[in-house]
Amino acid sequence: MGQGVHMQELPGIGKRYDIDLGSSTQRISVVVRQGIRDLYVFTDKGEEPTAVLELTGEQALKLGAVLTGTFFEG
Amino acid sequence: MHADLVGLGAIVLIAGLVARLGRRYGFPTVPCYMLVGILLGPGTPGPVLIDHPEDLAILASLGLVLLLFHLGVEFPAEQVLGSGRRLFIAAGVYIGLNVTAGLALGFALGWGTSEALVTGGALGISSSAIATKLLIELRRLTNAETPIILGIIVIEDMFLAFYLALLSPVLNDSGSTADFVVDLLVSFGFLVLLFAMARFGARAIALVLNSREDELLAILMVGLVVLVAGIALEVGVSEAIGALMIGLVVSRTSLKDRVEQLVMPLRDVFAAIFFVSFGLTIDVGDLGSVALPAAVAVVITVCTNLTAGIVTARLFGFNQRAATNIGLTVLGRGEFSLILATLAIAAGLDERIGPFVALYVLVLAIAAPLLAAQSRHFARFVPDRLLRSRYRYVRAETMSTSCTHQDQMHYTETDIDVCQECVDIGSTWVQLRLCMKCGYVGCCDDSPHKHTSAHYEREHHPVIQSLEPGADWQYCYVDEILVRQPLGRASSS
Q1: Helical segments of A1-74, H only
Q2: Whether B164 contacts B247, CB under 8 Å
Q3: pTM here?
Q4: Which chain A positions have a beta carbon within 8 Å of B407's beta carbon?
Q5: Ordered domains of chain B (ranges, CATH)
Q6: ipTM score over 0.90, yes or no
Q7: SS3 for B132?
Q8: For residue A71, is pLDDT > 70?
């Protein structure tokens, strides 16, 4: 895994990636399960995620391409 | 013939619609299918779509076979076997408590030994599908206790295989003890044979199944599975276990992922028919007479689940919230309980077992999602001393995610057995802590100078470990949580 990304197996569901944003309050976890990606966003130290996005494979590709800065159309 | 098609189509369509409506309110699908079967079956006044449940027998048993086959195929054997002793203890406690309570209730009901064994399994093994869906819906996938819950479920599935192997000779009930022993040996011998096949014969199976075309793979797969399940039934082991084991064999081949995808829609459709057809056999009039035992069973299951949740939380050092989450998420009973009840009915056991399990599953299906969603209210009633009391922040601090600094854990052992800073100033210490990033050893926060915390303030190295003999915890200053070992394979950072 790259720096600050931590992977954990979720048996029967998929994999969970915790992404260290270098901030004490902000945190993002991505759960990859059979084509679906769940994006868990934490913006405070509470237990409940601030937002949870359920993305299909295609939506995740689109979002990922924009985030990585790849030129993207369509 | 066409009349049958109309009935089948209508009942499957209605089951699907009812399940969709139920999903909108967060209820699991399995009991919805069963409910439709009960309401529109011959045992209930009102419209009857299928007069003779046995017309659906072959489709229903296909559903049962595919259900267990899929379970075997997707069984994450390596992840579970590599996940450590604590998880097995936790799962053992969960299964032990629930099955024992189920057996005790079964014997207390006085329906017979075989019936008690079925009750033990039906009460003891929770529904993987219900628990997994709950975790996704309640947005708990990143919670600290979630990998543990999933691990427990998987070990339960494994336990189911052994329970089925134990149960089938009992259900055959040949009368004499010698015959029983022979049946038991045949049953476990068949298991061993399939295990050996899983270990050594996976390539041969892959050779039989392999086809680049999905169409052919699907057909070969269904043929093989049904054949093995049928043979299992012939030799006196149940078809359920045959299907499960051949699933395990296939999961060892390179075809695993494709088979898993192909079998999924088939499984969903035929399993729904299986659940509907189970419902069809239930006479609504019988439900009243089993209401009391079913209610007692529900109460027992809630109690044993909460107990198991607390024990698990204690083992893993979780807080109250996690304890109740664990107990209440795995509360749902579904496919496995119904499978056991079906086997019991097929073996001609006490007739009350069908309605009893049906009612039990139905009540828990409604109760489990509601209770799991409200688990934080139950957490208040769990006293601190039941959990590891030395974690004084257990209740207050967040335990919802794992520490994100595990890549900075470099040192796990040291030869240093003094706090050098204390020695330098002639002071003493209570316990020692190790900085996992640079190997620094200092005194703990109960010591007068708190050198380890001072080290963190200075260097911002996040994770420390206790050097106290027998203490196996690590603490992250930045995330303010205990660092837990990841379940399954460690990350390759």
Answers
A1: 57-68
A2: no
A3: 0.76
A4: 1, 3-4, 6
A5: 2-384 (1.20.1530.20), 406-483 (3.30.40.10)
A6: no
A7: helix
A8: no
